[in-house]
UniProtKB/TrEMBL annotation:
It comes from Streptomyces gelaticus. Pfam families: ABC_tran (PF00005). It comes from the Bacteria. PROSITE patterns: ABC_TRANSPORTER_1, ABC_TRANSPORTER_2. The keyword Nucleotide-binding applies. Residues 16-253 form the ABC transporter domain. Keywords: ATP-binding, Nucleotide-binding, Transport. This is ABC transporter ATP-binding protein. GO terms for molecular function: ATP binding. InterPro entries: AAA+_ATPase (IPR003593), ABC_transporter-like_ATP-bd (IPR003439), ABC_transporter-like_CS (IPR017871), ABC_transpr_LolD-like (IPR015854), MacB-like_ATP-bd (IPR017911), P-loop_NTPase (IPR027417).
Amino acid sequence: MTADPLALNPVTGIAAATTDLSKVYGRGDTRVVALDRVSIAFREGEFTAIMGPSGCGKSTLMHCAAGLDSPTSGSVRIGTTELGGLTDRQLTQLRRDRIGFIFQAFNLLPLLTALENITLPMDIAGLHPDQEWLERVVSMVGLAERLGHRPAQLSGGQQQRVAVARALASRPAIVFGDEPTGNLDSRAGAEVLGFLRESVRELGRTVVMVTHDPVAAGYADRVVFLSDGRLVEEMVQPTQDRVLDLMKSLGARSHTG
Ligand SMILES: Nc1ncnc2c1ncn2[C@@H]1O[C@H](COP(=O)(O)OP(=O)(O)OP(=O)(O)O)[C@@H](O)[C@H]1O
């Protein structure tokens, strides 16, 4: 039996959790078990990196944990809300109000200014940003001077900073990033990772990031490793070198069966 990751603290302290989460795609010859009974909790105020070889289920885990995809079995909670019990409309609302997303592609609208892009999700929802919070976020990502610029007038790193600010604007309980530095050079990537780190330390957010990059994982408080849809290792206070060593030993282990 798998322990319930929420049993430690059923009310507070856990921003999101999965229990025995499985996801199976296709059937018959094309059946793929992308996730195999994954139980994991993401604690409030913690920065977690999800790593593992290509195809091991990282994106599927993130998408299910963020309510973007539905599990085949098992459950997902955001805070104390069980996603399986929600209607599509309630799920949309929960994603909008309590979750921030950052993807590898910046996904900014070209005709809108940086500020308009940052507040767009809230504008669509008819919500008013908390001005003080918005100013903190904008100043943290160093965009105060560029709020009137359109995406084409910004570098890739600056565009991803806009996407980081957009993800944080509604003061979400948890921010999910899918390879958020995958399209950036190392300097711009380091800046974005620094902002994610700061959003945890200074703004008290919870961040979960999928990455292939040991350097990026080194910014996290812990790294979890998936292999063939299962959680196989966890490392707290990772450094780039320790992550690299563990990746090598996991690779060797999987090759020797
Ligand atoms: N929509 C889908 N239909 C069928 N199979 C899928 C689908 N999405 C993912 N898969 C399969 O599920 C497994 C896990 O995919 P997933 O994208 O979660 O892996 P990943 O670790 O994020 O990979 P990568 O690092 O290459 O992005 C893979 O075998 C993949 O081919």
